Amino acid sequence: MPYAPAHKQQSRERIVRAAAELFATKGFDAVSIDQVMEAAGLTRGAFYAHFRSKQELYRESIIAASRHSAVNKVLENLRDPAQTTRQVIRSYLSDEHLALQFFPCPMAFLSTDIANRDKGVRDAYTRVFHGLSNVIEAGLEPVEERLSGDVNSRQQRSLAITALMVGGMAIARALTDEDSKNALLRACMETAMQLQEGGLNEQMLAQLSGSSAEG
Predict the structure, then answer these.
(1) Could you read off the pLDDT of 65-75 as tens digits, one per residue?
(2) What is the pLDDT of residue 74?
(3) Alpha-carbon distance 138 to 59, whole Å?
(4) H helices present in 27-153, as ranges
(5) Does any domain span residue 190?
(6) Which of these three, 25, 42, 60, is where a domain ends?
(7) How many CB atoms lie under 10 A from the CB of residue 38?
(8) Could you tell me which of 91, 98, 104, 106 has the C-alpha nearest to residue 175?
């Protein structure tokens, strides 16, 4: 007797969620189909009723992981865009996220792994990146945009904040020194907050310009 569509969908969601968590903590190569199905509480034979390959599951799990991440929880609970963006930054660059106390974001926890995968996987990652960047941009405080290419324009600021969040968390995961981890996350958070509140101040812009000139 075939399972009802609702039952099949529930099984698929269990597989995807289990895979998303395993991939985020171990990477693609270190996770087997058997491990995914065991974590989902299903038999290996059920896997191919839902997915053609582990690669296909990987693509879907990236999108699913973003839905279960701390960012999505913030979006569910807050309505003010500026407040939402600030809370997203704080949650993303928190010690709790680093310690996997809530669902890890695939962008920070899988960035180097995904770079070596097929276009479908990288397309899924790109969708998640732009989704986060759009959330950030919606909550930026207004600032004078002097030129379209200005570092303080809304798009430039949202991209910079997203890069600080993802890059900061990805690097912190690789460090073995707790003091360095904490200092890095704090520095990324402070800079991201300043960008959210109104962009880089003149002193920071001068420092960036000086660094560019020296290079």
Answers:
(1) 888 777 777 77
(2) 78
(3) 27
(4) 33-40, 54-68, 70-77, 81-92, 95-98, 106-109, 111-114, 119-138
(5) yes
(6) 60
(7) 14
(8) 98
Structure tokens at 63: 């999108």
* Contact of 111 with 185, CB cutoff 8 Å: no
The encoded tokens of residue 174 equal 């690789």
Q: How far is CA 211 from CA 191, 204, 206, in A?
A: 17, 11, 9
Quote the CA–CA distance of 185 and 208 in Å, as a whole number. 20
- The pTM (predicted TM-score) of the whole model is 0.81
Tokens read off for 162: 């997203």
* CA dist., res. 9 & res. 14, Å (int): 9
**Contact 152/143 with Cβ under 8 angstroms?**
yes
Task: Select from 21, 43, 60 the last residue of a domain.
Answer: 60
Structure tokens that stand for 132 in this block: 């986060």
Q: At what angle do helices 154-174 and 119-138 cross, to 10 degrees?
A: 120
